[in-house]
Amino acid sequence: MKRRLLQIAALLAASMAAGAVRNAALSPSLPWTRLPEHPLAAEIIEAGFRLAAREEVAQASEAGWPLIFDARSQTEYDRGHIPGALSTPAQELATRGGEYAAMLGPTDPVILYCSHEACTDALRVAEVIRGDHGRDVAIYLPGMVGWRAAGGPEE
Amino acid sequence: MNPAFRTTFAWILRIGLGLLFAVAGAEKILDPVGFAFAVDRYGILPEAAVPAVALGLPWVEVLSAGVLLIPSWRQSGQMLIAAMMAVFVAAVTYALVSGIEGECGCLAGMALSWPTAILKALLLGAAVWLVREDQAP
């Protein structure tokens, strides 16, 4: 048994060493004690939108303004969403995109979110509702997973 | 069970599990950042621990698979694979019960779903059987 434990310890140590070598070869390297900004964040900024902070979403949820759009499927929305958010599924953009845009005045700001930091549904809906009048469109990147993880209320 | 069949069956399971872990590990080694975000999505580990797990765990998978081919190390590899599968089953079940969605960070973009949890539970069963098989006198 002692030999097994030593072998397992050796495998774990070798794995961490190999991981460190792999990380050194990455450009940029992955920070050891925190997550880097998600690659999608850069894409959102590049598309002309901005990132919404959790506090901003919480305020909008309480005040009912700006409107919050939930870009996940209707089923996911029904299972639980940020209080006050409206369901605008990205899956139905082709048929209901105009309807989503019509929920807003020409310059009304809006906050969007989807499931998690890697989903692109919020970005897809944002592209459709951006309009031609410089609307302030913010995306809450952590999405419903991040909202729940931070202990945010839902309805 | 016929001993010859039992030995053959064990090797089929061993090779299958080994290949699965080698491919899954290699995929994560190629994209450690993506895997880090997948691990973080479970909300189980503190953020400070996520990068170390994302960098080290894929190599544990690959090395555990590799040592299955070395007779004197095989049982250690099988034990590690069984332990990892137990953690994966628990994590996926926790995510499903908590309503966490998205990719599971397992293999080839598999989604967090009950079929994924069941598949993992079956693989855990196979790994535990192999450990017991090699412990048999």
Mean pLDDT of chain A: 89
Q: What is the number of beta strands of chain A?
A: 5
* Largest sheet properties of chain B: none
**Which percent range describes the beta-strand content of chain A?**
5-15%
Question: In angstroms, what separates the terminal alpha carbons of chain B?
Answer: 16 Å
- Radius of gyration of chain B (CA) equals 15 Å
Average pLDDT for all residues of chain B:
88
Spatial ordering of strands, largest sheet of chain A: 1-5-4-2-3
User: What is the CATH topology assignment of the largest domain in chain A?
Assistant: Oxidized Rhodanese, domain 1
CATH architecture of the largest domain in chain A: 3-Layer(aba) Sandwich
SSE string of chain A:
HHEHEHEHEHEH
Largest interface: A-B, 36 and 37 residues
Number of strands of chain B: 0
Number of structural units classed as domains of chain B = 1
The backbone outline of chain B, from C-alpha atoms, is globular
Please count the helical segments of chain B. Answer: 5
Poorly predicted runs of 5 or more residues of chain B? none
Bulk shape of chain A: elongated
Key structural traits:
heterodimer, A: 155 residues, alpha/beta, Oxidized Rhodanese, domain 1, 2 domains, five-stranded parallel β-sheet, 7 helices, 5 strands, B: 137 residues, mainly alpha, 0% strand, globular
Compact overview of the structure:
The complex is a heterodimer of chains A (155) and B (137). Chain A is an alpha/beta fold and 155 residues long.
